Amino acid sequence: MKQSLALALLVVISGAGNVCAAQTNALSAGLQSDYKTIRDYFIRAAEKMPEENYSFKPSPDVRTFGQQVAHVADDQYNLCSPVKGEVRQGAYRQIENSLSKKSDLVAALKAAFAYCDGAYGALTDANSADSVKGQTRTRFGMLNWNLWHTWEHYGNIVVYLRMKGLVPPSSEPAHQ
User: Fold this and answer.
1) pTM of the prediction?
2) Disulfide engineering: 81 pairs with which of 6, 86, 93, 174, CB 3.0-4.6 Å?
3) Integer Cα distance of 156 and 99 in angstroms
4) What are the contacts of 169-174 at 24+ separation with CB within 8 A?
5) How far is it, in rounded angstroms, from Cα 149 to Cα 64?
6) pLDDT tens-digit profile of 27-71?
7) Quick check: 158 and 45 in contact, CB under 8 A?
8) With bands split at pLDDT 50, 70 and 90, how would you rate the model's confidence at 174?
């Protein structure tokens, strides 16, 4: 009986420890979840737009759809490399200035998000207030900036998709 009670108590304590661990990273976990959502929406949107519409822009004074994709890919490196303690190996607008084909841009976008996955994956509530070398923002601040910047440009490409008669990923029915 005492062994059963001790085992039950151990199970309860272990479960409580897991809950506490999850709660201690509530801020970073929320940011990571939001990042994964926009990452997946953006990639799906890039895949959804037909190749012939990658040169489309609704007005002469804005980026083409392809340039929007390239810009977001560039900024995954530009904003996540300092958080990772690294220096970007390419120019600030390397992707935007060198790629225009859908297949190249989708591949570059996926690679850029995969690079940023590591920065978000390493974020915890405990290290979120750490300074980022050469920046005025913290780790959390830099990654949050990247998050809202990506959402901002997703809003741009939603308009492009709609103008071409396509439903953006965030408006598609949920998979059941």
Assistant:
1) 0.85
2) 86
3) 19
4) 169/40, 169/41, 169/44, 169/45, 169/48, 170/41
5) 17
6) 999 999 999 999 999 999 999 999 999 999 999 999 999 999 999
7) yes
8) confident
**Could you give the domains of the chain?**
27-169 (1.20.120.450)
Label residue 1 by pLDDT band (50, 70, 90): low
Number of C-beta neighbours around residue 107 at 10 A: 14
AA letter at 47: E
Token couple for 153 = 């440009």
SS (H, E, C) 109-134: HHHHHHHHHHHHHCCCCCCCCCECCC
DSSP 1-50: -HHHHHHHHHHHHHHHHHHHHHHHTHHHHHHHHHHHHHHHHHHHHHHHS-
Task: Give the residue from 125, 130, 144, 143 showing the smallest Cα distance to 25.
Answer: 125
In angstroms, the CA 160 to CA 162 distance is: 6
Determine if residue 134 is left, alpha or beta; phi over 0 gives left, psi from -120 to 50 gives alpha, anything else beta: left
